[in-house]
Amino acid sequence: MVCCRGKNSTFVIRKFIRMDYLSILQARINKMKNLRIVDILKTGQVGTQITVKGWVRTRRGSKNVNFIALNDGSTIHNLQVVAEVELFGEELLKLINTGAAIGVTGKLVESAGSGQSFELQASALEVIGVSDPEKYPIQPKRHSLEFLREMAHLRPRTATFSAIFRMRHAMIFAIHNFFNERGFYNVHTPIITSSDAEGAGEMFRVSTLPAKDAPVDEDGNVDYSQDFFGKAANLTVSGQLEGELFAMALSRIYTFGPTFRAENSNTSRHLAEFWMIEPEVAFFDLQDNMDLAEEFLKYLIRYALDHCMDDLVFLSGRLAEEEKNKPADQRSMELIEKLRFVADNDFVRLTYTEAIEILKNSKQNKKGKFQYPITGYGTDLQSEHERFLVEVEFKKPVILTNYPKEIKAFYMRMDDNGKTVSAMDVLFPQIGEIIGGSQREERLELLERRMDEMNIPKEDMQWYLDTRRFGGCPHAGFGLGFERLLLFVTGMTNIRDVIPFARTPKNCEF
Ligand code: ATP
Ligand code: MN
Question: What percent of the chain has pLDDT over 70?
């Protein structure tokens, strides 16, 4: 590469190489010292020279000195930066507004006030990205969650949402840990499918046919044989059926993927796009399934307590603030206390039939206080009933089992009474159903009979029935709604606030 031979040019090249080397070295040092705030606050040492980059939460100024609260998203805590006005000048400091991206080099010193062990005495300040304080929507004050939902592109920069999304990450990690430690294999089930796990509508169609003048068949229906897949296709509502195929081969599997439901329910617990975790286990019965679900939820809650305490303390304070406006008897338990309580106590297990008796005879029902009165066996439980059982009757999570076959899916295993199926729902305080699952019907004849009764087209499902034809075995599994879990561990009350970008009826922004 080096082809210049003259004395001069050799010198130039040497100098160039030397500079290059130095700048690489410097970059390396910078990278090492470009520390995350969480690490600085945990393991920083007074007197060391460091560089940090992040976003300005606030800047307070006096004549001589400015205090900048800097956050890089790695922790709920800000790093206080102290900048002498004389050293940097008003001009530069004026650019350091809420929302601006800056880099700071300086010395870590012991903090006088601010409730933190360290602050950073700035010796160099770099404005990396300015932010017009007049226009930046996230002001250093309390914004409503509704307002922040409309600012979903900027809300991760707030304390509340950065805490939520760090916890979301921690829970993802914990879920994979839990299953990996127990010999489960993660399976990616398809997002586009031509099957409908529940045998009901509420799906999003996937099609490349023109919206206007789509080809039709003799009966005037859209002719999907001309569509991309040669048949009607949808976004998945569950990975369970495909998950079962893999459980019949790898024994223990779980899926963790996006799930889509076009149900037009504008509630605080439903999303059109959400994430679901679905373990499926060969040779498991309903009891094993309940044990797994309970162990799983407790593991995740303990993981949050062990790994996310800073964020939990903050979120607990936020919740307490919000609950102040509620009448005393409607306030929920303090967040961390509630998580400990659920992690440390056995869930209550009872059958649907027992639950109906309790609900039917409850004061609530007798006084007509349920929106949907309980008349007796056969009524589908609404969230108000689920919450009554959990919050009023037992004051603990509840696992309800053995529901009437009429209100559950075709693949659930028929009980010996011929009336109920081996279903289980795990019900949580404030949330209602967090997990739905069952032992699956492994007996081919019984499964086919249910499919006929419920008008599930068997011709399209031969691949599913094959698992019952060849080496069929008892098996069970469940689905945990990831965002419902997050509602519980973060103490948030609206599901739109625990997913980065919520998709709900009439809402697909960003
Ligand atoms: P629900 O009765 O609450 O609408 P479901 O019985 O229709 O729920 P399942 O089909 O049993 O739900 O799905 C398993 C889990 O997925 C549920 O227990 C819940 O945690 C979660 N879930 C279901 N639908 C949604 C949704 N629209 N948004 C977010 N999570 C959901
Ligand atoms: Mn369910």
Answer: 92
Q: What is the pTM of this model?
A: 0.91
Torsion 306-310-311-316 (CA) sign = positive
Ligand that lies nearest to the alpha carbon of residue 261, given by its number in the listed order? 1
Going by C-alpha positions, the residue among 158, 131, 154 that lies closest to residue 142 is 158
Measured CA to CA, the distance from residue 46 to residue 66 in angstroms comes to 20
Torsion of CA 497, 503, 507, 510, to 10 degrees: 80
Collect all residues with Cβ–Cβ distance below 8 Å to 378 and sequence separation of at least 6. 404, 406, 407
Mention the CATH class of domain 2-129. mainly beta
Out of 3.30.930.10, 3.40.47.10, 3.30.470.20, 3.90.1680.10, the CATH code matching 159-202+237-497 is 3.30.930.10
Q: Are 72 and 54 in contact (CB under 8 A)?
A: yes
Beta carbon of 481 within 6 Å of any ligand 1 atom: yes
Contact (Cβ atoms closer than 8 angstroms) between residue 202 and residue 175: no
Query: Is residue 498 helix, strand or coil?
Result: coil
How far is it, in rounded angstroms, from Cα 508 to Cα 510?
A: 7
- Ligand 1: centre distance to CA 73 (Å): 31
Contact 42, 25 (CB under 8 A): no
DSSP code of residue 53: E
387 lines ligand 1 (CB under 6 A): no
For the chain, the domains span 2-129, 159-202+237-497, 203-236
**What's the gap in Å between 170 CA and the centre of ligand 2?**
25
Q: Do residues 424 and 414 make contact, with C-beta atoms less than 8 angstroms apart?
A: no
pLDDT tens for each residue of 70-98: 999 999 999 999 999 999 999 999 999 99
pLDDT of 481-505, one tens digit each? 999 999 999 999 999 999 999 999 9
Residue 199 backbone class (left: φ over 0; alpha: ψ -120 to 50; beta: rest): left
- Structure-token pair, residue 219: 């009966």
**Which atom of ligand 1 is least distant from the CA of 276?**
16
User: Quick one: three-class SS letters along 84-148?
Assistant: EHHHHHHHHHCCCCCCCEEEEEEEEEECCCCCCCEEEEEEEEEEEECCCCCCCCCCCCCCCHHHH
Condensed to tens digits (0 to 9), the pLDDT of residues 118-175 reads 999 999 999 999 999 999 999 888 899 999 999 999 999 999 999 999 999 999 999 9
Contacts 24+ apart (CB under 8 A), 447-455: 447/410, 447/411, 450/405, 450/410, 450/411, 450/414, 451/410, 453/410, 454/199, 454/410, 455/199
- Ligand at shortest distance from the CA of 278: 1
Name the residue at shortest CA distance from atom 16 of ligand 1.
Answer: 481
For the record, the structure tokens of 428 come out as 């949580």
Let me know if 328 is exposed, middle or buried by CB neighbors in 10 A (0-12, 13-18, 19+): exposed
Whether 487 lines ligand 1, by a CB cut-off of 6 Å, is no
